[in-house]
Amino acid sequence: MTDVVLPRAEDFDEIAGLLALAFHGGLDPGLLEVERGIFEPERGLLVRDGTTAVAHAAAFTRELGVPGASVPAAHVTMVSVAPTHRRRGLLTALMRRQLREIRDAGREPVAVLWASEGRIYPRFGYGLAAQRLTISCDTTELRVPEPASVPGTLRLDQPAARQAELARLYDRVRADRPGWSSRDERWWRYVLADVKSLREGATERRVLLHEGPAGLDGYALFRTKEEWDRGGPRGEVRVDEVVAENPDAYLALWRLLLSIDLTRRLSCRTAAVDEPLLWLVNEPRQLGAQLSDGLWVRVVDLPAALAARRYATDVDVVIEVTDELLPENAGRWRLVGSPTGATCTATAEPARLACDVRALGELYLGGAGLGALAAAGRVRELAPGTLAAAAPAFGWHRAPAPMEVF
């Protein structure tokens, strides 16, 4: 007999064991202690078969950067089903119940997640809202320009020692980048935690700081990994994140990362699709950039979600939306938006566009093009000329960028 219960804080270790089983990982005590610090048992859903945990889903309480704003978003996480209980509808039951609880709570207009497999979550209304680039390159012949102005100062330090400064800079830069999530004290401790089992043979994490005329204006979190072959050093620089407030800081950070002594390779798993590095290096194809999925967004409260973000140009359009799981989102909605604000209200006016709620998730962060979705048959134009008029509004001047896996 399976029952869905609300987890308790003391259930964390058992849930961690279930996740390790489902994702084929181990149980490292250091990592468990770090993850325990961000666990929110009150937002979990746990399925037991008798006394055994067999399925789980949870969410973190954070904000998500969206075009022109930051909105409360349920950061869905820790989703797993035991191998012995697959194909019994447990995942479907958890996802449906979670969405209903998020909607009924009325605090978060959207949910967001990283997908273990891209085919799983579209059936629950999640749309691919932000892609990412993975970079893996040989740095031997890569070059970036010399600084055009007087260079700032670069320093190396231990990340935890500079947490407060990193947090302030991150918040300033986050305001202009859709896809970045808020980080409170707990989350900064989690992000900067340096669990040895996750290093994969690399060094401890270091922070590279750039100080300009006004103080700290850029940082990079990275590791290095020693390697030698018959020809000499072949070390690797592994970049976790680069946060820069201006082009000078950005260029200085990458110039150093690409030229660290005794290294010949560099990798980064979460570069933005509009990463400025692509336009700085002398040979972009040598970066080995590959496109992958990142954030998946589910619109939970349609009028609140569409009114919360900003729009690149003025838009006034009626959209007919279908949503099988949350029928409150279904119907015709008039969206009136601009770079300074937006409203979204139910209407009986004729619709000019039609789509399902998944397509709205794909559009929400400004990464997917309205025209591209229409070409794929995901959005239908009901009144000629509407696509061309409305498409620019749903974009943004910065592409959404997944910064961290949660």
From TrEMBL:
<feature type="active site" description="Proton donor">
    <location>
        <position position="121"/>
    </location>
</feature>
<feature type="domain" description="N-acetyltransferase">
    <location>
        <begin position="2"/>
        <end position="147"/>
    </location>
</feature>
<feature type="binding site">
    <location>
        <begin position="116"/>
        <end position="117"/>
    </location>
    <ligand>
        <name>acetyl-CoA</name>
    </ligand>
</feature>
<feature type="active site" description="Proton acceptor; via carboxylate">
    <location>
        <position position="406"/>
    </location>
</feature>
<dbReference type="InterPro" id="IPR016181">
    <property type="entry name" value="Acyl_CoA_acyltransferase"/>
</dbReference>
<dbReference type="Pfam" id="PF13530">
    <property type="entry name" value="SCP2_2"/>
</dbReference>
<dbReference type="InterPro" id="IPR041380">
    <property type="entry name" value="Acetyltransf_17"/>
</dbReference>
<feature type="binding site">
    <location>
        <begin position="87"/>
        <end position="92"/>
    </location>
    <ligand>
        <name>acetyl-CoA</name>
    </ligand>
</feature>
<dbReference type="Pfam" id="PF17668">
    <property type="entry name" value="Acetyltransf_17"/>
</dbReference>
<dbReference type="InterPro" id="IPR051554">
    <property type="entry name" value="Acetyltransferase_Eis"/>
</dbReference>
<dbReference type="InterPro" id="IPR000182">
    <property type="entry name" value="GNAT_dom"/>
</dbReference>
<keyword id="KW-0808">Transferase</keyword>
<protein>
    <submittedName>
        <fullName>GNAT family N-acetyltransferase</fullName>
    </submittedName>
</protein>
<dbReference type="InterPro" id="IPR022902">
    <property type="entry name" value="NAcTrfase_Eis"/>
</dbReference>
<dbReference type="InterPro" id="IPR025559">
    <property type="entry name" value="Eis_dom"/>
</dbReference>
<dbReference type="InterPro" id="IPR036527">
    <property type="entry name" value="SCP2_sterol-bd_dom_sf"/>
</dbReference>
<comment type="similarity">
    <text>Belongs to the acetyltransferase Eis family.</text>
</comment>
<dbReference type="Pfam" id="PF13527">
    <property type="entry name" value="Acetyltransf_9"/>
</dbReference>
<feature type="binding site">
    <location>
        <begin position="79"/>
        <end position="81"/>
    </location>
    <ligand>
        <name>acetyl-CoA</name>
    </ligand>
</feature>
<comment type="subunit">
    <text>Homohexamer; trimer of dimers.</text>
</comment>
<keyword id="KW-0012">Acyltransferase</keyword>
